[in-house]
Amino acid sequence: MSEISIIGAGGFTGKELLGLLARHPKYKAVHVTSDKLAGKSLSEVFPDLVSPKDLIFKKHEDEVPKGSLVVLAVPNDASLELTPKFLDKGHKVIDLSGVYRLHNQEKFETNYKLKHTSFSLTDKAVFGIPEIFRDRLKGADFVSNPGCFSTSVILALYFLGNLRKEIKPRIVADCKSGISGAGGRVEDGGFSFNGVYENFRAYKILSHQHEPEIQEYCYAGSGLPEPEILFVPHLLPVYRGILSTIYLEANSENLPFLETLAENSKSEPFIRIRKTPEEIDLAKVQNTNFLDISLRQRGKNITIVSALDNLMKGAASQALQNINLMLNETETLGLLP
Amino acid sequence: MSEISIIGAGGFTGKELLGLLARHPKYKAVHVTSDKLAGKSLSEVFPDLVSPKDLIFKKHEDEVPKGSLVVLAVPNDASLELTPKFLDKGHKVIDLSGVYRLHNQEKFETNYKLKHTSFSLTDKAVFGIPEIFRDRLKGADFVSNPGCFSTSVILALYFLGNLRKEIKPRIVADCKSGISGAGGRVEDGGFSFNGVYENFRAYKILSHQHEPEIQEYCYAGSGLPEPEILFVPHLLPVYRGILSTIYLEANSENLPFLETLAENSKSEPFIRIRKTPEEIDLAKVQNTNFLDISLRQRGKNITIVSALDNLMKGAASQALQNINLMLNETETLGLLP
Amino acid sequence: MSEISIIGAGGFTGKELLGLLARHPKYKAVHVTSDKLAGKSLSEVFPDLVSPKDLIFKKHEDEVPKGSLVVLAVPNDASLELTPKFLDKGHKVIDLSGVYRLHNQEKFETNYKLKHTSFSLTDKAVFGIPEIFRDRLKGADFVSNPGCFSTSVILALYFLGNLRKEIKPRIVADCKSGISGAGGRVEDGGFSFNGVYENFRAYKILSHQHEPEIQEYCYAGSGLPEPEILFVPHLLPVYRGILSTIYLEANSENLPFLETLAENSKSEPFIRIRKTPEEIDLAKVQNTNFLDISLRQRGKNITIVSALDNLMKGAASQALQNINLMLNETETLGLLP
Amino acid sequence: MSEISIIGAGGFTGKELLGLLARHPKYKAVHVTSDKLAGKSLSEVFPDLVSPKDLIFKKHEDEVPKGSLVVLAVPNDASLELTPKFLDKGHKVIDLSGVYRLHNQEKFETNYKLKHTSFSLTDKAVFGIPEIFRDRLKGADFVSNPGCFSTSVILALYFLGNLRKEIKPRIVADCKSGISGAGGRVEDGGFSFNGVYENFRAYKILSHQHEPEIQEYCYAGSGLPEPEILFVPHLLPVYRGILSTIYLEANSENLPFLETLAENSKSEPFIRIRKTPEEIDLAKVQNTNFLDISLRQRGKNITIVSALDNLMKGAASQALQNINLMLNETETLGLLP
Asked: Of B22, B112, C85, C128, whose Cβ has the fewest other Cβ atoms within 10 Å?
């Protein structure tokens, strides 16, 4: 059994990861932290989670078991402080914050409104989308897990492969997320019922910090310059799930977009290409590591729809997929039977 | 008191209109029909509606009170059959179906999958958006009430006025609607709880029948050729409300989009221009005749957000606004105190 | 036009009352207060409310227009402080807090965990259920509006009339309320989405402050000693509405319970007796001043189901019904067409 | 690996059981039927389920793999027809319908409005609540899995043990269920969004078919005559979970109810006694096999609150707990790590 430490285990993502680990054949959670919940037991905080061993929440700064792989599920500023420490102590680290994803320091600092204190580490971090960086993730010591919105958009574009050359570099990504993907924190109670129920709104319009991340990675491997991304997130009155509607304009008609998507992802265990985009909905991906993608083509216009569970393929289960690679285990272990 | 007959009063929109009429100082509903509900009383079917007089549902073909203004809230095929009859008998008619909105018969028949049997009537119908066609609506005998999605997009673009010349004629309209705007019928039970709750999806992607309507009217008065509209509706797990996110590209930067919106709509009683698009949400327009609009500008890109209540400004209260004009009453009567 | 001042107008109930007054033919809101919202305008705080005049929120202590009827929609401690002041200045007052409902000071102080500083006023307050105290409410200067749960249970029992002698004085009242009736405040954001959505729980089990109020008034006029009430409120993941399931045991079988309910309430404009309790649901009473009641009888057991809108018959519209009586207007004015 | 056949696998419960089996270390689903879904694959029907092998739905009458344990998740009439056939062929059978639970044929036929055609089988069926009938379930060939409401009430009373002698035999069980426990079927779309969302109601008041089942089993082992049960189910606008509020009257005050509950269930892996009934909610038991119980005592009155997931401890996971016993495996296998 490999040992896993989760720093910041009291949030939505920490909970999901604990649930996944409880059923994993080769890993076990051995250390969980939360400054707010320190002293409480796992079963007290998450009574609907069944864990092999009832761990007690520690403080972030408490000693972490030697040799354990460290998962950081803390806010950006906390990650800036903690990640270098754990790396220095020789832990394998996977960081779920946005701190080590962007390779442009200025863009990071502008978008995150945060001074970067360990920017050089970014070059050591592998961006944790296995479908793109599988080879580098195998055995990696430091992984930066991607954002939930980002994953849903980057992969939908990535699998277009060579056809990315044939689309205009101005891409609209209209994304809709349940409350657990929109920044509410479980420890704080998150969004008010009143503000979300029977309601809907856009937020951080053309100014969300995931936009440059989409921009940097969606054309990975294509040799193309980064496209312009127009990213608008919206808040759905649901608990979990992201559906992204992506608008592209091609240079010519009749290009084989759906076929290309299907061809480029055919060996991927967690990518499902649907025949029509109307088939895609949140219910089909909730509680799974799947990303569903399809599209509609009309003349030069292509509308892609993609969906994933923001807490799973958008966070915890993608982290587990990465951990499997980091520890040289089968990529699907604990995710597929 | 002017008398109003509602043909097809058993649906979502019929109910809303009955609620508005019950409080209206000058109109009263005198005749309500529903083939399914014939014989039942209004208070039995809508126990949460308080009506001055407890009407009994009649059949569609039953005799309509002479001189009453007729509201048609029936499916498209029923409107094709009934509208000419009521016009022939000399009733003022406002039709809420999509049958008399498009001036291109082929587009109508393709989009509605329906043979048009009285296309010449379209030229006699005034399209019922008062903010655009107020003068022609005053005293009009025949009005075609617009679609709910359409209203939210058309007006957001219409109020850009001359700036419409400065935008590229390829417009993305990513719209999200509660279930009452998405085709479910109250008489049939509509959507299943299971398919909608904790779920979200797009439907009729680039193939919704409201797309040509948006296209025909959004550039009204501009002298410009119709733009290309990329319209994708989505189904929200809420009861009422539409929020539309509209993506434009301008020919140059720094054009005064928000100021223009505000200037062009400044005398409109039901249009509210918000300072930022993040302020806009469904809760602020539900149960009102308001349409809220704002936008974010970044370089040449403009993202407009608009919101309305699909049953109100998107259907029943806009119909009442039109009826006020048709009957030469104050436009806001029964809608504003 | 009679003038109405609302102290504490920024909450759920204040908003509802403002909506009712905006459409009332004889009253107008002239003064609204909220310590938190002072300085903001009504249309800014409640953009979905349409008011004849856009009032600005004042502080609680600001001068109230002379001669205006004062509605207090403030917490219990604030009411203790403010009510005597407004009465002293000669205003008619209707208080929506729980402070002047109970005639047993000890019970009040125990249940409300609050020292009563003006208990003698309780004797001057008329308890605001028109169906019971109509005669005393006419022209009254001081009314204590009842609780929302209380109204749903008290009236269901009150209309049993003489049959109350035939039931065992141990009554179970299992009540379920939407979040607006369960203590969340709109100004504070109220309950978290996370804690309410896809969830359900009981609270203040056998210890809710409305229990003694039900006990004191449910046998009004019967000459019987107060029964034992076992009151358990529950929190529904809905916005508005209360449904109460009340369990009685009769002394003998075959007593005419439903007939008696119907007979005793037959002239009441806002009480609707349904043939079967399965017909009763929240949707039928939401946004209305109706209280729906029915029951099932099996041997000596009677299960009553009643439903109302906690913000309407449970608060704002019942207050308006009372105000109509206090001002010697028609009781249904502004509530029925 | 033991092989499991699921007859009627297309419903809510079938889906849950398939999810549990996919992760079970010793069982695998080998045969799934649904007359409606025959020919479709599991991954097509339940895209959010991850199965080791993508089974194809068969017809109910198709040949079942020899030696497989048969789970019947079909309506009552189908169970009446199919159960005897599978038993005759030598399969171990666990039936999830209500057909073999009641030992009084007349009560069955009255409550289920169904003629019983194989009543003698009832004596061979072990009632599938392991906490009560563990010994008889070990190695059993035929198990009748209990109802979801029933489980939540029976166990709450059962664990009172000897104190059941001290309570009056008239028990109110006011139960609230999410839509998946209230009879909606996933194949049919179930309840309409419109009828459930922002709504709440009681149904089958004092006439639900689970009432006699509660009555027969809640006093199991006590030697006491069956008590009178007043059972009223309600429909919550949530997907899953049942919370039951149970009202008892004791013969005397100060009896140790909570302590007795705790003592009698202390070795049970799936029963959690909470210190206060306010701690209990649906979220804590959803997706688990736990039943949470607590109570409030006031004088002679006791109000018990219990909660479970109707699809899990109320159906599929309790079935798996029973299957573990039938196959002489560890009772918690596949349910606890």
From this structure: C85
Residue of D46, D179, D193, D236 to mutate when probing chain B, most B C-beta within 10 A: D193
Assess C275–D contact: CB distance below 8 Å, yes or no.
no
The closest CB to that of D201, out of C243, C286, C296, belongs to C243
Checking DSSP bridges between strand A242-249 and strand A301-308, what pairing results, if any? Answer: antiparallel
Q: Is the pLDDT of residue D250 over 60?
A: yes
- Cβ–Cβ of D199/C281 closer than 8 Å? yes
Contact, D65 vs D6, CB < 8 A?
Answer: no
Q: What are phi and psi of D246, to 5 degrees?
A: -120, 130
How many CB atoms sit inside 10 A of residue B150's CB? 29
Is residue C7 a contact partner of residue C60, using CB atoms and an 8 Å limit? Answer: yes
Residue of chain D nearest C235, judged by CA positions:
D281
Instruction: Write out pLDDT tens, residues B141-195.
Output: 999 999 999 999 999 999 999 999 999 999 999 999 999 987 655 444 568 898 9
Q: Do D47 and A287 touch (CB under 8 A)?
A: no
Q: Answer yes or no: are the C-beta atoms of A237 and C194 closer than 8 Å.
A: no
- CA A263 from chain centre, in angstroms, equals 24
Tell me if D303 and C204 make a contact (CB, 8 A cut-off).
no
Cα end-to-end distance, chain B, whole Å: 18
Decide: helix, strand or coil at residue D200: coil
Residue D190 reports pLDDT greater than 70: no
Query: What are the backbone dihedrals phi and psi of residue C186, each rounded to the nearest 5 degrees, phi first?
Result: -65, -35
User: To probe the interface with C, which of D198, D246, D279 has the most C CB atoms within 10 Å?
Assistant: D198
**Cβ-contact B26, B325 below 8 angstroms:** no
Whether complex ipTM tops 0.85: yes
* Residue ranges matching CATH 3.30.360.10 in chain D: 149-308
Helix (H, G, I), strand (E, B) or coil at B150: helix
Partners of D333 in beta bridges: D336
Q: What is the mean pLDDT of residues B50-61?
A: 88
SS3 of A27, please?
Answer: strand
Antiparallel, parallel or unpaired: β B242-249 and B228-235: unpaired
Tell which phi-psi region holds residue C328, choosing left (phi > 0), alpha (psi between -120 and 50) or beta.
left
pTM higher than 0.90: yes
CA distance A75 to A79: 6
Q: At C237, which amino acid appears?
A: P
**Distances D66 to A216, D27, D33, D54, D71 between C-alpha atoms, Å:** 56, 15, 15, 20, 14
Contact indicator for C231, C205 with CB cutoff of 8 Å: no
The yes or no reply on domain A2-145+315-326 and CATH 3.40.50.720 is: yes
Q: Is A283 helix (H, G, I), strand (E, B) or coil?
A: helix
D189's CB contacts (< 8 A; 6+ apart) are B192, B194, B195
Closest CA of chain B from A114, distance in Å: 22
Q: Which CATH number fits domain A149-308: 3.40.50.170, 3.30.1360.180, 3.30.360.10, 3.10.560.10?
A: 3.30.360.10
Q: What is the amino acid identity at position C271?
A: I
Cα gap C320→C330, rounded to integer Å: 11
Q: Nearest-CA distance from A8 to chain B in Å?
A: 26
Kindly state whether C84 is in contact with chain A, defined as any CB-CB distance less than 8 angstroms.
Answer: no
The residue type at B40: K
Residue with tokens 């029936």, as numbered in its chain = B74
Condensed to tens digits (0 to 9), the pLDDT of residues C210-254 reads: 999 999 999 999 999 999 999 999 999 999 999 999 999 999 999
User: Does pLDDT of A169 surpass 90?
Assistant: yes
In whole angstroms, what is the distance from residue A296 CA to residue A276 CA? Answer: 7
Q: Which residue has the tokens 């430091």?
A: A142
CA separation for the pair D7, D91 (Å, rounded): 13
Segments of chain B assigned to CATH 3.40.50.720: 2-145+315-326
pLDDT of res. A285: 98
